[in-house]
Amino acid sequence: MTDFYLMTQYDSHTDKTVSYMQKYLREFHETKGVFLRYRTGKGAKRATAKAQKVLVKEQTEALVKGLTASEKAKLRQEDALEHRNLVDKILREAAHYNFPKMHLISHYAEQIPKFSALKQYSTDISKYMHKGFKETYRRSNKVNATSQMITNYTRDHYVHYEGLDN
User: Fold this and answer.
1) pTM of the predicted model as reported, rounded to 2 decimal places
2) Could you tell me the CA-to-CA distances from 28 to 7, 8, 45, 52, 163 in Å, in that order?
3) Is it the case that residue 21 has pLDDT exceeding 80?
């Protein structure tokens, strides 16, 4: 994904760079499953913990029965595998990559020949513009913050422009 993102920042593209981008994106989609367990929300984690608790209780009850040591060891291995499969299933169902930004990048390769470089998709400018407002909000007392933000932001820019005259 990093290689894909870096290539999107090129000022110009050739058929070769577009094919590389498609390749990197395809590789990401083929291997993204390893990250799903890290994309889950609190609800999925709670469901996993609850399912684990039930499974451990069932497995513990099965171990109490009169089994030999080798049978218990084999049962523990089977239980561990069942436990891993259960957790993976719950996390896969709850986690996904189905959000607009992931869908948008799937169209890059077809957009480049039509519109050239993809600077219009960059969020860097809006992030930079947002920085000043975030800073003025931090300096406010959070009571009637909008008027304080406007005053501070205006003052900062006025002082900046006055400094350019000197």
Assistant:
1) 0.48
2) 14, 15, 25, 30, 48
3) yes
